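Look over this record as teaching material.
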Amino acid sequence: MTNSGLYYYFKSKQEMLFSIIDDLIERALIDLREKINLIQDPEDRISWIIQSHIKFYAEHRAQTKVLVHERSSLEGDYAKIIMEKETEYVNFIKKVLKEIVKKSRAEVDINVGTFCLLGMLNWVIHWYNPEGKITPEILAQNISKIFLKGLTGQASSIRRK
């Protein structure tokens, strides 16, 4: 297909970019909406979200890179629609983390926890190769353990003031 042939299907570069990003986010949200409430334990839920996020990256590497690197290029209604979907995704994570924090009585700011987790997950596109030695499943298990238990799995001596 030629470059000009793309414009038979899309009105603009914005529409093309929106289509790529919207398709990926919508598929992730559909999976999340359908499966998250089937998992009872909040730690198992967050582990499933991590697994799902990594799996999506491994299966849709090019789209995920476009999402992470080019999402801020969207304008107007396209940006608004994607922002609403991103907010829904973030709110799923916040809800689960609130349950984990409540259950564990940890003193953690939910926003900080949410964006730390998303930072871990979204940075994966810069260093992880799904065809390498570590499978997506093993990577997800490691991220879940580190996120939920810390690197050592032991209580920290750092206390919140």
